[in-house]
Amino acid sequence: MTSATLAPTEGPNRMRWVILAAAVFARTSIGLQFISVAALMPLVRAELSLSYTQVGLLLGLFMLAGVFISVPSGIFAARFGERRVLFGGLAALIAAGIITAAADGLPMMLTGRILGGTGAVLITVTAAKILTDWFHGQEISTAMGFLGLSWPLGIAIGLSLLPELANWSGWRAAILATNLLPLGAVLAALLIPRLGQPLAGTTRSSAHKRPLWVITRREAIAILIGGMAWPLMSSGGYVVFSSYAPELLTAKGLSISAAGLAVGLMSWLFMFTIPLGGWLTDRFGRGDALFRFGCLFSAGAIALVPMGGPAMLWMVLAAVMGVTVGPIMTLPGQVLGPASRATGLGIYFSVYYLGTVVLPASAGWLLDASRSSAVVVWYAATCLTLAPLSLYCCRALQRRWNLGG
Q: Domain total for the chain?
């Protein structure tokens, strides 16, 4: 039996753990570059004269490309090879950092953010497909949990370090520094001989001959509905809160650095709660219940932040949100059959990226309209409350139509 046909969890095939580490490293660079504008918001706004709506647009447009190329990127990874697509994504991310750092106004900033978003979707969809191919059974939630961990890890690094770096060398140098991680990811990926493997019982040449679009209508409907749960939790809840809570805390008297560190504490605690959520899901098989608990509990903690009191305590309690990542990232593998995995993952991520555009931009508009960062924080709590409803509807369709990989 060759390594190409070996089941991912059979035998001494430990390469999957090295591949997981490289995927986590690559996706951490996305979180870092994504949050760079929010972490440096006061400095960027002052120099480029941006409104809050425009800042929200910059946050949302980073992922705009995902709405359009998530489906093609999953198919391209299956057809042309994960290595090429991953390297293309990392190259786009590096170029985006250079353009954003050199921007002299909104148009150039938008160009850099859209290019960075293109790299982000190529990296994210490809990494998810790689891990779905290599991990199965009681390892998949843990693996996906670590992949999900990389996003808040990048955000935590950005919120904690970029403001300090900007105080020392300026915001442009701080954004340029975000290129260090994707450069490191390129070097890590170069050391891995093969990133992807075909489905069991197939060869790479036969995988190249598979149709471009393979998914049933029922699978597409279920994954569209279930796909809404992830952006409501991640973009509407976590990203909106972590992007705008520093503004609220600054208005309450904290310095920019102190506010970034306070919100960054929640992201750092994700280093523990996200892997814990993946392990609990694999160990006890109660992923849906864990997702509901994490969303509702963290929504309550976030809603208390504008009320005052111990901000650090609310951040610690909100970090329970991390247990939701592993369960929701394994959803496509549970709803989709093996043949429809590439197309279905593309659809799933298209919904996710649409949420990353609409929800942060809506939060920016809401802040301009209300002039109250507290309203935006409550908006984030509301998104978290709605996320379990999307998952419930998806599971109802899955049971009714007997779907599953």
A: 1
**CA 72 to chain centroid:** 18
Task: Tell me if 10 is assigned to some domain.
Answer: no
Q: Which two tokens stand for residue 42?
A: 């006061």
Alpha-carbon dihedral sign for residues 285, 291, 293, 297: positive
Closest CA to 156 of 61, 264, 312: 264
Is 195 part of a structural domain of the chain? yes
Rounded Cα distance between 181 and 36, Å, is 13
Q: Helix 256-284 vs helix 311-318: angle between axes, to the nearest 10 degrees?
A: 30
User: Residue 6 is which amino acid?
Assistant: L
DSSP line for 117-170 = HHHHHHHHHHHHHHHHHH--GGGHHHHHHHHHHHHHHHHHHHHHHHHHHHHHH-
pLDDT at 12: 38
DSSP H or E stretch at residue 182: helix 180-190
**8 A C-beta contact, residue 42 and residue 256:** yes
Render pLDDT for 311-331 as a digit per residue (tens, 0 to 9): 788 889 999 999 998 889 889
Residue type, 13: N
For residue 148, which of 9, 319, 27 has the smallest C-alpha distance? 27
Placement of tokens 């809840």 in the chain: 237
Q: Which domain holds residue 72?
A: 15-401
Looking at the domain assignment, is residue 42 inside a domain? yes
Q: Which of 324, 279, 332, 278 is CA-nearest to residue 298?
A: 324
Where b means 16+ CB within 10 Å and e means fewer, 7-31 reads: ebeeeeeebbeebbebbbbbbbbbb
Residue 5 lies in a domain: no
pTM greater than 0.90 (yes/no): no
Report the interhelical angle of 217-227 vs 341-370 (nearest 10°). Answer: 30
Say which CATH number the domain at 347 has.
Answer: 1.20.1250.20
Estimate the share of the chain in helix, then strand, then coil, as percent rounded to the nearest 5: 85, 0, 15
Contacts (Cβ under 8 Å, ≥6 apart) of 15: 3, 192, 194
Highest averaged pLDDT of the listed ranges 24-38, 39-53, 344-358, 388-402:
388-402
Tokens at 158, concatenated: 């950005």
Helix residue ranges, H only, 191-255: 204-208, 217-227, 229-231, 240-251
Q: What is the DSSP letter of 307?
A: G
